[in-house]
Amino acid sequence: MSAEPFIAVLIGPGGVGKGTLARRLVDADERLWLSTSWTTRPARDTEDGTEYHFVDRATFEKAIDDDAFLEWAEFHGNLYGTPRPPAGERDVLLEIEVQGAEQVLAHDPSAVVILVVAPSMEQLEDRLRGRGDAEEHVRKRLSSAPHELAKGQSIATRVVINDDVDRATSEILSILEELRPSGRPPSKKD
Asked: Which CATH number fits domain 7-179: 2.30.40.10, 3.30.465.10, 3.40.50.300, 3.40.50.410?
């Protein structure tokens, strides 16, 4: 029976590029399995349905009752949750909210939490608007960003500025390599 998986968590305000970084990390490191979170929010026009497992509230609440989530939280009126990882040899990469990261750390204090930040609040706002979010959603995200950043700073193992996606991906891969338990084979280098 294998040991608990190594868990790496990407957190940060909406719009910092966590999703893009997560996909790049999984492409670059064959040991990583990216968990697809569940949510009750509707898909954005710019999403193709692979970003989340989109469900209604009743389905989500049944999964909570069935203890199907490693963590879950309500954020801006929608539920988000991370399904329990499958047993196996792969390490787990989570792209979740700060509340969820706190739950993961309570379950597994050895989890590595990486806070991803934009170079500036102005760039964060530009990114939110650029992905097609509604104005009300942009305002909510921007108003919650300072709290998310402060909380994220308090629980993060490391902080990465996503000023260039290639550079940030390389930095996170280096952090994972440094902090991954010994005895695991190195990642493939592309």
From this structure: 3.40.50.300
